[in-house]
Amino acid sequence: MLRVTDLTCARGGVPVIQGVSFALDAGEALVLRGPNGIGKTTLLRVLAGLAPPLAGWVEGMEATAYAGHADGIKAQLSVAENLQFWAAVFGRRDIGPALGAFALDPLRDRPAGLLSAGQKRRLGLARLLVSGRPVWALDEPTVSLDAEGTALFAAAIAAHLGGGGAAVIATHIDLGLAGTRRLDLAGYRARPDARVSDFDEAFL
Ligand SMILES: Nc1ncnc2c1ncn2[C@@H]1O[C@H](COP(=O)(O)OP(=O)(O)OP(=O)(O)O)[C@@H](O)[C@H]1O
């Protein structure tokens, strides 16, 4: 579903992590760990096609939807309009299951700009469901969520995996997902010469 081979990722032109390889099949989740600044966000953005890799390959990028810190919400649109907008982007129409999964029905007509931080986060996560994409790349998905929101997210991701989806998740909390693998990016910190050597390899 997602196959990553010998990947080097840069941020602002500076190599951050290198030599990352893993594969995810249907129903599998990989939790990214590592200290602040190691490159979890950087890797997730490359997996979702939002930034190019410096070297290596990602197979399955077109199947990947990203939910990150910025949430990607349009403040003037209502909750329902935001989801309809994103559904249209992905060639889909039905937003009902996404509203339901993240308890957004009571908020459906509220302008997204007026939502609380946790409500905004739930809307950002609900976008994953309307995307219909099978691989979710999630950057600290539970930040701002209360216990109820975290439980909704855990249920949504368990259902996603149970339905044959896959996920890569940067998180510091235990989501209680069975069979989740971990990848500590601390072991993949880029060498200072990574850009030069990988540049050469890319052209040989
Ligand atoms: N535009 C940029 N230019 C240069 N360096 C950047 C830029 N954006 C981020 N970085 C650096 O890239 C490195 C990786 O950042 P990244 O956000 O991927 O880390 P992270 O593991 O997700 O961190 P955290 O756990 O704090 O969220 C950090 O050292 C960060 O300071």
From TrEMBL:
Name this protein carries in UniProt: Heme ABC exporter ATP-binding protein CcmA
PANTHER family found in the cross-reference section: ABC TRANSPORTER I FAMILY MEMBER 1
GO MF terms held by the record: ATP binding; ATP hydrolysis activity; transmembrane transporter activity
Gene3D superfamilies for the chain: P-loop containing nucleotide triphosphate hydrolases
One matching Pfam family: ABC_tran
Keyword Protein biosynthesis in record: no
Entry keyword set: ATP-binding, Cytochrome c-type biogenesis, Membrane, Nucleotide-binding, Translocase, Transport
Gene that specifies this protein: ccmA
InterPro entries on file: AAA+_ATPase, ABC_transporter-like_ATP-bd, ABC_transporter-like_CS, ABC_transptr_haem_export_CcmA, P-loop_NTPase
Domain spans labelled ABC transporter: 2-204
Tree of life domain: Bacteria
Signal peptide annotation: none
Listed GO biological process terms: cytochrome complex assembly
